[in-house]
């Protein structure tokens, strides 16, 4: 349950693995539908999305596991889950799903950004959600998909 919850949250919020590891229970704001990411890359705080679907899973996980401090506690008392544990769980999930393409936990973050872009979300919002200082980083990060290009209509065709 914990492993499924952490992977779901990483994808649904576009989190880095280190950000997911360091989440505390009180960082979830259900009413606002946000997650407070503290001291992310560059030692900056930011807010990102708390998906309703992800929260339903987290709610079950919290009810069963009852985490007190860290949202995803590790095997050592008082410590959060390790990056290696999450990576290992992800590798097993990829293998079990029969995915042949190379993928890492960070692929979930890329997918979050790409899927938002494909759905028409303004790149400036995606930049904010990912915590990028520069839009150039976000543009590289969210490689443009063929599907997105196909939706663009030439100005000539509009005349």
UniProtKB/TrEMBL annotation:
List the InterPro entries: DNA_brk_join_enz, Integrase-like_cat_sf, Integrase_catalytic, Tyrosine_recombinase_XerCD
The UniProt GO MF terms for this protein read: DNA binding
SUPFAM superfamilies named among the record's database cross-references: DNA breaking-rejoining enzymes
Tell me if Metal-binding is a UniProt keyword of this record.
Answer: no
Q: Which residues form the Tyr recombinase domain?
A: 1-154
**Alphabetic keyword roster:** DNA recombination, DNA-binding
Pfam families in UniProt = Phage_integrase
Q: Which GO terms describe its biological process?
A: DNA integration; DNA recombination
Q: Give the UniProt family note.
A: Belongs to the 'phage' integrase family.
Kindly give the PANTHER family that the UniProt entry links to this protein: INTEGRASE_RECOMBINASE PROTEIN MJ0367-RELATED (PTHR30349:SF41), PHAGE INTEGRASE-RELATED (PTHR30349)
Name of protein? Tyrosine-type recombinase/integrase
């Amino acid at each position: 349950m914990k492993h499924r919850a952490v992977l779901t949250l990483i994808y649904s919020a576009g989190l880095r693995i280190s950000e997911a590891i360091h989440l505390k229970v009180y960082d979830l704001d259900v009413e606002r539908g946000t997650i407070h990411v503290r001291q992310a890359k560059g030692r900056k705080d930011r807010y990102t999305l708390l998906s309703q679907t992800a929260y339903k899973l987290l709610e079950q996980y919290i009810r069963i596991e009852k985490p007190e401090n860290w949202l995803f506690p590790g095997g050592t008392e008082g410590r959060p889950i390790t990056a290696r544990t999450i990576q290992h769980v992800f590798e097993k999930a990829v293998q079990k799903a029969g995915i042949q393409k190379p993928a890492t936990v960070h692929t979930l973050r890329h997918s979050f950004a790409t899927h938002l872009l494909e759905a028409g979300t303004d790149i400036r919002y995606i930049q904010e959600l990912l915590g990028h200082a520069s839009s150039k980083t976000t543009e590289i990060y969210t490689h443009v998909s063929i599907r997105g290009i196909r939706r663009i209509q030439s100005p000539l065709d509009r005349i």
